[in-house]
Amino acid sequence: MTSQVSRTAEQADGTNAEEQREPGGTKGVRRLDRVIIRFAGDSGDGMQLTGDRFTSETATFGNDLSTLPNFPAEIRAPAGTLPGVSSFQLHFADHDILTPGDAPNVLVAMNPAALKANLADLPRGAEIIVNTDEFTKRAMQKVGYSASPLEDGSLDGYSLHPVPLTTLTVQALKAFDLSRKEAERSKNMFALGLLSWMYHRPTEGTEKFLRTKFAKKPEIAEANLAAFRAGWNFGETTEDFAVSYEIAPATTAFPAGTYRNISGNLALAYGLIAASRQADLPLFLGSYPITPASDILHELARHKNFGVRTFQAEDEIAGIGAALGAAFGGALGVTTTSGPGVALKSETIGLAVSLELPLLVIDIQRGGPSTGLPTKTEQADLLQAMFGRNGEAPIPVVAPKTPADCFEAALEAARIALAYRTPVMLLSDGYLANGSEPWRIPDLDELPDLSVQFAQGPNHTLDDGSEVFWPYKRDPRTLARPWAIPGTPGLEHRIGGIEKQDGSGNISYDPANHDVMVRTRQAKIDGIEVPDLAVDDPHAARTLVLGWGSTYGPITAAVRRLRAAGESIAQAHLRHLNPFPRNLGTVLKGYDKVVIPEMNLGQLATLIRAKYLVDAHSYNQVNGMPFKAEQLATALKEAIDG
Amino acid sequence: MAETSTEGTGTIEALSLVPKAEARQSMKDFKSDQEVRWCPGCGDYAILAAVQGFMPELGLARENVVFVSGIGCSSRFPYYMNTYGMHSIHGRAPAIATGLATSRRDLSVWVVTGDGDALSIGGNHLIHALRRNVNLKILLFNNRIYGLTKGQYSPTSEVGKITKSTPMGSLDAPFNPVSLALGAEASFVARTIDSDRKHLTSVLREAAAHPGTALVEIYQNCNIFNDGAFEALKDKQQAEEAVIRLEHGAPIRFGADNTRGVARDTATGDLKVVTVTPDNEADVLVHDAHAASPTTAFALSRLADPDTLHHTPIGVLRSVDRPVYDTQMADQLDAAVEQRGKGDLAALLAGGDTWTVVG
Lengths: 642, 359
What we know:
The complex is a heterodimer of chains A (642) and B (359).
Chain A: E1 17-21, E2 28-32, E3 34-42, H1 47-61, E4 64-70, E5 85-93, E6 106-109, H2 112-118, E7 127-131, H3 137-142, E8 159-163, H4 165-172, H5 180-184, H6 187-198, H7 204-213, H8 218-237, E9 243-247, E10 257-263, H9 264-279, E11 283-287, H10 294-301, E12 309-312, H11 316-328, E13 332-337, H12 339-355, E14 359-365, H13 382-387, E15 397-398, H14 405-420, E16 423-429, H15 430-434, E17 436-440, E18 460-461, E19 467-468, E20 494-496, H16 511-526, E21 535-536, E22 543-548, H17 552-564, E23 570-574, E24 576-578, H18 584-589, E25 593-598, H19 603-612, E26 617-620, H20 629-641
Parallel strand pairs in A: 2-9, 3-6, 6-7, 7-8, 11-12, 11-13, 13-14, 14-16, 15-16, 22-23, 22-25, 25-26
Antiparallel strand pairs in A: 1-2, 3-5, 4-5, 10-17, 15-24, 18-19, 21-23
Helix pairs in contact in A: 1-6, 1-7, 4-8, 6-8, 7-8, 9-10, 9-14, 11-12, 17-20
Chain B: H1 43-58, E1 65-69, E2 84-87, H2 93-103, E3 108-114, H3 115-121, H4 123-132, E4 136-142, H5 177-183, E5 188-193, H6 197-209, E6 214-219, H7 231-234, H8 236-242, E7 243-245, E8 253-254, E9 260-264, E10 271-275, H9 295-301, E11 312-319, H10 325-340, H11 345-350, E12 354-357
Parallel strand pairs in B: 1-2, 1-3, 3-4, 4-6, 5-6, 7-11
Antiparallel strand pairs in B: 5-11, 8-9, 9-10
């Protein structure tokens, strides 16, 4: 493992570099161990696409990487304004990395708003590539620049590359029969070409991508290719860019295997398809479009040849209702949403608790409350997942920790739902959903066996000796009830949300029976078998940092920094929020201090304190962005010293 | 027409994928062992008996029949049917049934709901089920009152209704469920009455045979909180003037000695009730349930006076062929396999751009 900060030849920006002259070449090449690039522009400038393409090139090259798309909720926010800025940050390295990076080494700013909105995140010395064509008086005034920041000396501490990106793009496309406006649209590809040259990215993938994307408009495909190549050539020929950079593939960072780059939502969609195959049950997704979960619906809708049924419902409630109906019929029922959708689905989740049918509820958390920050990340639905229903309605809760981990988390959620006949909440978030990282593609024989046995015949003998089917007679080990699907002769039965008699499942208002049923449903969830919590503690530390969900990357990066600086700290990360791992209480009591960083106001800390009577210390951030490793390292250091 | 059963085989197209019962069934086969707990005298008993009596006619394997309900008095219905059943939550039965019906085309799925369940809390699901044309049969028991919560006005209650929640009279204009369904692109809309078993059964028969969503509004008497709500349609003498019995292909006539009829108002294009004379007899509208346009069916549904219920049409107002959602969904799955082959998970996971790390 290589730490992000432990190299001796570290630069001011945290990177390591050695410079060399290419034999026969006029330009120098510097070797770096990692780089953080941020592309920023108007929401209509194609920054997400540019970032995606650079990421794909980087993945193909074999670097480890982590990405952070950041965009406004509006599709086309007012042009040239600060709220309209869309950005894409990519951190890539020759070793394993855990986060999209704290501070960019390179900012590509397509307009004054993009410069202004992102400058504060840049360390001194960072490279800034600006599109000078957009630095008109009017555009600068719009974001409050009274003088041009390119000329007033305010960027003196940075390495500024003023490039007339728009003009150069339009010139490069003169041969094409395009209006100026159409030609200008390719300026993001010019920028991509320039950056691809700067960092020695392979270009075949992008060329293929453009040809496929614009297959029906070959003229546009060729124009974009021309802009892309013009950007590359510009880098090679202009004197402004004296050096280019090499970041070697992260050959030793990864176990052997075949890798691809994957985002959280894509990994989650694949995990659901894999779960369907491993369970040999058809997948049924009932969903209503909501940011940042919709991509899972889009992805699953593309895979009907896997027997996947996707149903875009009239509302959130119908989405989960249809999924529950399909589960009653023997499908792997799934609903995908974000926090506001979970609120609407709550009553149906309660019904699923009462019906004791398998159901997956996928919550891609975003900033709240209410509509909140639809495109930003947060972890503030944990208590909603735990308790957001009427009555005693416990459900298991699992959380992925990285984008690629969403695949395994989906399989784990399906395992629990199917084995214990219960709705399961999976808590991903906006950061995991849209962020991406390399993923070792698993062999199919590595995937868990999720096969289920439907009830086939009577399971109970009445006093009179007759054989009957009791829909609520439980498996003594799991406390799961039988799953008897329509079409099975002799097992006709009726279930519903009214309290049921233990065993027979008939309506029962008997007080003692209700007490038994409430406790039994709780016992079933409490008894779910989950792996023990693993603790990473090489130096017998006295302080434990405990996390869950997408904070894994920043927490681990912070822990590495601290250990590299000689501090002792233990780290553990929860996949299972309900039930907690059996050994959690013992683990917690083994440390003098427990720190819980969360992107909420202390929801896991609340659960931990209530359940284990541990004086857990909460460290919180709710600004819609993931933690930065440096900031967490500082907070953890204070906890260690405090 | 696809709506009618194919003579000889006894197979109904809408139910062609549902397995048949091996032995002859009787009403008893569809009665569950649960004690029926509606109030004595409730109209629900008559509907339950009619449905249990009708099901053997379909000859479907009992285990492939599912009743899904919401919340309310009527929604206890599934407990009394010896089939698969789900008593779900308030208003959501059409959504739940949609998931079941679209993923299991070998099932005959019925939704039982009430005026509050279907038209108030569950209004959204009802209209969307209708427009999608999922293979569901929706039985909407309309008693124009909330019974289970003990007597508040419902979305079908007449304006000015005095109830516990409206001591000075209700202010809301009521829904006409048939008009609403027609407006929601329903392919099959019918109305019948709990006490008329023969008519109720005939409507159930046509609904069951219909491919797609069938909405059957059943006027149902709540003898505790809204007794006599449909008396105008049940009292023999009043009913002659009040009830318009629709039969596909027959002139729309009613009243004592069939002296009344429905004709087009040539001035407005709307429908009107006329006294039939030899002079205007040819103008009496012939009911066409299969008309492509719902316009006339809608006009028929508007003849009823919401207060007196006079000129209430019963029978099948509309029954047209429209693509069925679950069939199309299954077709898309088949087409995807045809075009791209059966899904290959290993290939999917690998995707396009990969790189290999050698250990």
